[in-house]
Amino acid sequence: MKISNCNWFEVEDYLKHDDRCVLPLGSTEQHAYLSLSVDSILSEKMATDAAEPLHVPVFPAVPYGVTPYFMGFPGTVSLTMQTYEALVRDVLDSLYTHGFRRVLIVNGHGGNSPVQAACADWVKDNPGTALRFHDWWRAPKTWAAVKAEDPVASHASWMENFAWTRLAGRSMPAEQKPFVDFERLREASPGEVRTLIGDGNYGGEYQKADTVMEAIWAVAVAETRSLLEGEWE
């Protein structure tokens, strides 16, 4: 259940019998011809679809993340890691105050992943809590499903092109884009990154059939849901 569809009375009642919740992490950054909010859209929908049959509350996706390398693309918003760690800890502290003790973080943006260290520190500072950090798109079963369909998959390519991240009325290139030189990217400034990747796709086809994407999504939802079920450490 999405927190945005609940009132506080309902959350209070929920906490009388369960202490689990889901916190999606996203970003606002270029995704070629797709929405700038791809990572937030995907992390929140993944969290919601996974949690729905379990009736576990899902908080709104944090819409900003750590993405300094895309600052050459207008519309991108980047936080420093120091700011991001403080933000995530503040959110977790708020959840703890109200009685949430088991938190699944569904992350949709690779640049956010280093915040796991701050999350681990938060668990140490709050005995009786448990936190799972889930990069949903590169979880083992999900990534295997992506690679089985097409090993050429990357940022802003077909693997992020779902019906819910596509923008109406925008056409996609038909060709497969060659992979960018990742070694050069690691050392590049934001302006140089834009020059290297052009439209923003790191490499791969721009779109595949919705039936293909729905099948991969189903694998990812099941893999994410499994982290909410069973015993927590």
Automatic annotation (TrEMBL):
Query: Which Pfam families does the UniProt entry name for this protein?
Result: Creatininase (PF02633)
Listed EC numbers: 3.5.2.10
Record InterPro entries: Creatininase-like_sf, Creatininase/forma_Hydrolase
Q: Which cofactor does it need?
A: Zn(2+)
Q: What is the uppermost EC class here?
A: hydrolase
Q: Does the keyword Hydrolase apply?
A: yes
Keyword Hydrolase assigned to the entry: answer is yes
Gene Ontology terms, MF aspect: creatininase activity; hydrolase activity, acting on carbon-nitrogen (but not peptide) bonds, in linear amides; metal ion binding
Could you tell me the Gene Ontology terms of the biological process aspect for this record? Answer: riboflavin biosynthetic process
Please give the superkingdom of this protein's source.
Bacteria
Name the UniProt key words of this record, in alphabetical order.
Answer: Hydrolase, Metal-binding, Zinc
**PANTHER family, per the entry:** 2-AMINO-5-FORMYLAMINO-6-RIBOSYLAMINOPYRIMIDIN-4(3H)-ONE 5'-MONOPHOSPHATE DEFORMYLASE, 3-DEHYDRO-SCYLLO-INOSOSE HYDROLASE
Q: Which family does it belong to?
A: Belongs to the creatininase superfamily.
Protein name from the UniProt record:
Uncharacterized protein, putative amidase
Phylogenetic lineage = Bacteria, Pseudomonadati, Pseudomonadota, Gammaproteobacteria, Cellvibrionales
